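hiii, so i know i said id send this last week but things got crazy w the move. better late than never?? heres the sequnce for the chain we talked about at the cafe, plus the structure i predicted for it. fair warning i was half asleep when i ran it
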Amino acid sequence: MINSKTTEYYHGSYGSSLSFLSEYIANKTYQDRKLNYIIILFLLAVLIATCLLSRPIFAQTDTGPIKTVFVDEKVYLQKNFEQNIKNKYANSHISFPAKGVAHIKQTKYINKRPIKINIVELNSNINPNLSIKPQIASKKLNSRKTIRRIAQQEGAIVAINGGYFKPQTGVPLGALMIDRNVLTGEIFNRVGIAFFEENGIESYKMDKIDFDIKAYTRAFSIEIDNINQPRMLSTYTLLYTPIWGKTSPAAPKDGLNLLVVNNKIEKISSSPIELKENSFVISGNKNIISKLVKSNSKIYIDIKLQQSLKGAKHILAAGPYLVKDSEVFVDTKEQKFGAIAGKNPRSAIGFKNDGTFIIVAIDGREKASVGMTLVELAKFMKSIGCDYAMNFDGGSSSALYVKGKIANSAHNKEGVAVSNALIVNDDSNYDIQLSSL
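okay and structure toks below
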């Protein structure tokens, strides 16, 4: 580094040396020509050595130990990332399927019983081209595909099964938002992971999801209890959009369905109604629907996120919590999970406060791997550094895809067909390479 003092040194020390050199050469009576050349070469060598010594050879960094300044920064960060992973997961099988991505396979023992674990750590500081988002199986919610098919159709390098879904239809059971488009509402205010993006930098938050949904006219508004979810109570007022499927469900007992196209009322029926483009169906009690009809004005939908998640780009809910504020936190009862506490195959995600994102798949229900309880999983997620972590759908749904292959011992080798997944893309794969022409 050249600062003000270094500049003075160059002018003072180098300047006087060069002045002496010129005077010496001018006076040819002191030495013959051959000796002059030797002295000139010697002085040049001294000058070059002085320049090299004045430059800093090493520099301290924030991300690790001392490094050379001559090594490319990105190369150093990747090597540092790889070394840290190897140190953290000693005696494990480790690979690096992409820049900033580590895949770790290990076997852990709890009460002398084996558990096979797959871990993926992602660091977008190493590779800013990594992007993480939820993805549904198809263009409609009522469809399912295996994790491999979802990953391959989206060009993902990593994918894991996501939130819960209704097996009969494939409709996600819980909040799901992709590219700021709310596809489904929350159930029991269960915890979700929210993804933010600002100036190309991704960040994450974990919180219980609570959408505020209203249908309104010029004169009044009504509360909507949920969007694109199966009916839980006959008294609920529900909203269905075209992504739900071809038709809305039938209206509840003593209820009506109201079809709105381009914000105008088009049809009223107690039967299922076809969901057209630019349309939605409000399904609820006759009194509420009649109130909207009598208004004889345009109807609009307003969906707001809770304050803590405003600005989120994607949201995927599942649950329960595993780690919260760097402490084990399993709120099974509060989030109304009754029958998932035993040893099972598991899928989970978490993140560290430094931005590292972690994906975990636990094999279970087999002799070589007995699975984990939720508390065991929570303790494990904390042990690998998660400051926040949550459980995803597990059991036969648990499947982890890494660079073309299912990495864990999934049900039926491929895992069951699921409705949604969390996928990781490396957008650098799509960079346009300019030719030399």
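btw The first strand starts at residue 58 and ends at 59. thought thatd interest u
miss u guys!!
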